Amino acid sequence: MISLKICLIGGSAVGKTSLVRRFVDGIFSEKYLTTIGVKIDKKQIDFDESAVQLLVWDIEGTDKFSGFNPRYLNGAAAYIVVLDQSRPDTLEDAISLYQQAKVVSQSPAYLVINKSDLPSKLTQIQLDSLADFEFSHVITTSAKAGDNVEKLFELIAKQASMECEPNGE
Amino acid sequence: MENDLNQVLKSIDCIAFKFQGSGQFDTIFNDTEWSPKLLKNLLAGNPVSLYGNSLFLDDFLRDAEAFWQQTASSNTLSSGVWTEQFDNGVLGHFEAQAIKADRYQLLVIKNLAEQFDEKQKTLQVAREMILANENILARHDYAQERVASLVSESDNLKSILDSVSRAVDAINTGILIADNEFNCLMENPAVYNLFNLQADKDNGKALTIILQLLDKQYPEFNRIICSDQSWQGELCWMQPPFSMKWLMLSIIPVKNSQDKLSQWIFIATDISRVKHLQQQNEKLTLIDNLTELPNRQYFWNALESFIARGMPFYVLYVDITNFKIINDEFGHNIGDEVLFLISEQIKKSVKKDDIVARIGGDEFGVILQGVITDSQCKKILERITNLTFVPYFHQKINNLNIALKVGVAAYPQDGDSVERLIKCTSIAASYVKDAAELPYAFYTEEMELESQRLLKLKKELDNALEYNQFELYFQPIYFTPDKKVAKVEVLVRWNHPELGLVMPGSFIPLAEETGLIIPLGKWVIEHACQALGELNYRGIDIGMAINLSPRQLSDRTLGPFIEQTIQEFKIDAKKIELEVTEGLLIYNFETVLSQLQALRAVGISLSVDDFGTGYSSLSYLKRLPINALKIDRSFIMDIANDANDKAIVSAVIAMAHKLNLLVVAEGVEQQNQLQFLADNHCDFIQGFLLCKPQPFERLCLTLEQK
Hints:
The structure holds two protein chains of two kinds.
Chain A: E1 2-10, H1 16-25, E2 38-46, E3 51-59, E4 78-84, H2 89-104, E5 109-114, H3 124-129, E6 137-140, H4 149-164
Chain B: H1 2-11, E1 14-21, E2 24-29, H2 35-38, E3 48-49, H3 55-69, E4 76-85, E5 91-101, E6 104-111, H4 113-153, H5 157-168, E7 174-179, E8 184-187, H6 189-194, H7 205-217, H8 221-226, E9 231-237, E10 245-255, E11 261-270, H9 272-279, H10 282-285, H11 296-309, E12 313-320, H12 323-330, H13 332-349, E13 355-360, E14 363-369, H14 374-385, H15 395-398, E15 404-411, H16 418-434, E16 440-442, H17 445-464, E17 470-479, E18 485-496, E19 500-502, H18 504-514, H19 517-537, E20 543-548, H20 550-553, H21 558-568, E21 576-581, H22 589-602, E22 605-611, H23 618-623, E23 628-631, H24 633-637, H25 643-658, E24 662-665, H26 671-679, E25 684-685, E26 694-695, H27 696-705
Helix pairs in contact in B: 4-5, 4-9, 12-13, 13-14, 17-18, 19-21
């Protein structure tokens, strides 16, 4: 079975840990508990004829207290940049992180616009500006409602496992 | 020795291994309660493989092996903190380090159980505080934006209050409207909740509390508010036996259609939760988040301590010029960057044990200890005000002439209380702000008297238009070759009941500050057009030059007003020339350009006044729809004797002609100045040598005689 390292990066309190908890355990907690450092969770995704094990790296949010550590992206099959649509400034953080990540990683980047259960404060101009960046996908999710969370990881697993398939006859 | 080392490693809760190559390690020390849980697949003996125990550690070991191969300068590679979930569900927190020590490559894994909890607690509070702060700011800003947009759309204050209150009702933001004398007109129910008041019994009490708090906690508030500017700050309110409450307060001036102050809107939000979170982390309580400098509260306490010691010291109040423009034009991120750079500059300019604090949005406070004379203080002020980063910063911002203006007060001679010292620095800062050439000023009693005089004058100026105290004077502008009158410049004077004739230099800046310039400017345009109509009627065919202030150009009704006035007095738009200063070109160029183009489209001519004293950008000149340049009088003054002024004036004339612009020289007072200008083909001349400014009737006589 293929194991794929997937990293979640983004500003603090955008919901990275909640996405992981929703995906791995199917639960959501309203209480905000800040992540320190890194925690890795595993989950197997079964496709029709194969299975993929995702090693999901939940990385501490980047802010004035904690910088971005590019080393964490080493060997990642893909990485997810998360932002919170109810806090427009987190988009700027996400783009800045993506630009730093792109320097060290050639892996596909997924942009997740989280907290779709809350009113969006992103402007159309901000949303349009996302087209300027080379995200593999831009997906809107809600860790609270569970919207698109499973779909996100399945999509990543499918695309990343295809990349990993051996070439040749 | 080995035993000692083991004791050390045990006491700091570490395990250690020596790398032997190819993923193999020799154990140095592995005797802890937690290591069997972390390294559950570790075999006995040496060498051992550490792979296969932890996903995170496996990842780090690959990086570590690469690191040990490198000849990089760093001797240590850290994994950062990671969390491991053991089989029993318990979480462990660790950090690994790859170390290069002489011939050895070591791996040390440290258990962070204790430090993790501490760090988690601190960051939890800090991040919750940031979130709470963001949330409060967002709703406070929302209320402010709603008020601003509703005020511009409606004259009905009641409807504004109702509408904004409804919008912010759920978020408990107090809104209060007061008249221009700070009498409460109306307030929303949230105001009563904020101040523990009763709606039916305590009308207007909240405003009294707010004003008392402002008076006590912001001695500079009166000065700021006198210039009709909006203000934002934090207030601490204590009401025994209730606990302390922190409020974020915004005060916004509302102006009527005459651009005169009519009301004040107060928006208050309870930020006690943020303060409470800050207080859980001592460092955050007294530190400004952006600059990481001490905040106003810290500064206040520090001043009190310095006063209690009784030793002489200096207090500085540092203000940034044009900062609002930076925020408005370039956004808050650039604004924050500028604030940060300035805070660094100030810190570098003072001793380590001096106090530098951010005491307002774009204001810093400094306490210089051990400085006992003005001359010692001046040396430090020179360092602070010399903004070395500016030439290397954002090009557009460099053009804004950012500068630091510093007001200085000395303890004990200027004051012996915190309130008095802050007030003195604020008065000195206000004085220096108005003096373009001065970067700093020391407080003097004369300054305070002057400040009081200006305040009085400002109040009187507010009524001057109503009492018909303004009068127009006209100064002819002549064709240089034949000395015939080509046009007249309109100049305004104030017939003050006690002071007599007040010149524009003394009251136009005040009118700019208070916004009176908008109605006054319209009054000037209207009366100038009327005068031109009268001259036409008398058969005198000349043009009229009217000064326009930068603030007038921001008035969207200006263009239609001029057009309508021209039609009303049946005058030819081509006979009107508007004089704008270079100052208005330094920002918002595109808006200014479209305003000027609209005025040109009506047929009006435009000229740049005081050329050479301000921005003087040739690239902007090329793009502006102007017809003429007026060389500033300061260049004309010494033109007969000063070789530099001669060179500048002849170059400006030549350049203007190349750009198809006409040139006017103002301030011509001597025959040799006139001769030089004529020799250099200056198109027009204006000055006392030919004619002084005169009232309308005398102008008519002068022109009729000619």
